[in-house]
Amino acid sequence: MSDLRQYSSDELLRDGSSIHVRAIRSDDKQRLREHSEGLSARSVYFRFLGPKKRLTDKDLAAFTDLDFVNRVALVATVGKGEEEKIIGVGRYALSDTAGTASRSAELAFSVVDEISEPRCRHAVARASVAYRSGAGDPAVRGGGARR
């Protein structure tokens, strides 16, 4: 897929329910804030590799206003319209290693604990990195969390 900004997929879970995986949008700021506020302290620590009380407006802009080339984020959601809720986030940021031809990517994931279905986590992870396969395999580092 050449433009992940248009990514959208429905995933059927083993329990028969479904989730929607799509590109994050600028209008997701409040939904992302609500998702992050529901994470346990342990999950926040694993996701951000340290404590973080809340996402600032600057954080929310950085996490939702992306170029979808070097910085990509997908969300797993349930509900529609005003009732849509983010239950998972997968993102990566590519970076050049100064003075070398190598590249690295930072990955981060968070999925609410209530979603024990591994397919939800896998759907977000798979979609977040799949389209990069033709661009080489950057070294990967990152964190992830379940709340």
Description:
The protein has 147 residues and is an alpha+beta fold. It has a single domain, classed as Aminopeptidase, CATH 3.40.630.30. Helix content is 26%, strand content 33%. It contains four helices and six strands. Strands 1-2-3-4-5-6 form a six-stranded mixed β-sheet, sandwiched between helices. Helix 1 packs across helix 3. The chain starts with 7 loop residues before the first strand and ends with a strand. The C terminus is likely disordered.
The low-confidence runs, each spanning 5 or more residues with pLDDT under 50, are 131-147
CATH topology: Aminopeptidase
**Number of domain modules:** 1
How many DSSP E strands?
Answer: 6
Q: Note the overall shape.
A: globular
The N- and C-terminal alpha carbons lie at a distance of 30 Å
CATH class: Alpha Beta
Helix content: 25-40%
Largest sheet, in brief, is: 6 strands, mixed
Topology record:
Layout: E1 8-12, E2 18-23, H1 29-37, H2 41-48, H3 57-64, E3 71-78, E4 85-96, E5 103-111, H4 118-130, E6 139-146
Parallel strand pairs: 5-6
Antiparallel strand pairs: 1-2, 2-3, 3-4, 4-5
Helix pairs in contact: 1-3
